[in-house]
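Researcher: Good morning. I'm working through a list of sequences from a screen, and I'd like to move beyond sequence-only analysis. For each chain I'm collecting a predicted structure so we can compare shapes side by side. This is the next one on the list. No need for commentary yet; just the structure.
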Amino acid sequence: MKRSKYRIALLVGSVVMITLLLFILIFNMVSRHNIKTEAESAIKSALKDADIISDTDIMDFISSLSSEQSFETALKNLVNSIENISLNSILDIDPSEDDSLYSANVILLSSRDNKIVETINMLSSLNYADLISWCKQNDTTELIKKEINGKTFYIQSKINDSKDEILAFVDVTGEYDMINRINITFFIAAVIICISGSFAGYLLGRKLDQTQLIQKQFFENTSHELKTPLTTIRGYAEGIEKGVITDYQRTGRVINAQVEHMSTLVEGILSIAKLESGAIHLNKEDLSVPDFIQDCLMPFEGIAKSRSLNVELYLAPGTVNADPSQLEHAITNLLTNAFKYALSTIKIIYQPGELIIWNDIMDISDEELCHIFDRFYTGKNGNTGIGLALAKEIIELHGKTISAVKENGGLSFRISL
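Model: Good morning. Structure tokens for this chain:
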């Protein structure tokens, strides 16, 4: 039982971590698939457009670089002034017409005229020399993803009708870096949430352990309380049977008191079971609060006289919509507690919206006050407190609230009505 908090903490932490890791996995799969799909679309579009490339087109462009300067001078000036040029700009290929998110770069890897290849490579490979070198040594006819010199590319090449080998590629380094950063963020968040979930599970498990311990103590004390009157009744019954007891009137009073105690205890346990099962249904009606309180007090007149208790009533006119029998059960339980522990005075105050039942009482500890409405809590004097637990649940079943407060040298039960 004491290990519940650890099992629940482990369970909650594991479920949270597995859920978040699955989310990260799905996010990575979807993101990488979308990147590949978009890159593939851009590359296919670029290679399709590159089918129109011819040696004449390229040479015409090179010749147009400068009509007055030599070819070498014009090329040198262009290379010095432009960091990165590909066939996209040379042949006016516009990938923006495609729906792809990417713009593929196109490079001429080989041609029937080596001078053309050298010229294009000088213009277009300033930032991609390592990529071109790798592609010349490897088969790229199928779409592949490759990390080269710290950058990630999707690459594919094609031989066009002019027997030129054209390479198209998309640089997706930024996207994969972003995914990695998101993964790190998600993982850190997963660890934090997992730790928080485990801690919450630990607290829940500890509360469960405490509840189970209190419930165990409750049943142990309840068994003891049931056993005590049974033992008393059995003793008197045996005495009567053997003729030892002759004061039948006194014996009858004792047996009747013990039976009443057992009946109250069993009734409380059955009422708790009914509340848990939802078997109690409210039949509400409008009740006059002053008249209702007076009716609830009638059974306690004898106790008040025998103990010389001063009962003060301050009841303003007002009504409440409630189930008469259930509310009477709750109020009677509260009054029973007040009459049982009052030293000299009980005050019942009603103002529309709130009912207060106060009695002077010997000091009650904060711990007992904190658990005063707990079903299975057993106080220092061994009382199980079933009546107060039932009162609270019945009042809450009506949609009202109740609290216990130490004030004015006594204990007050405040009920919203």
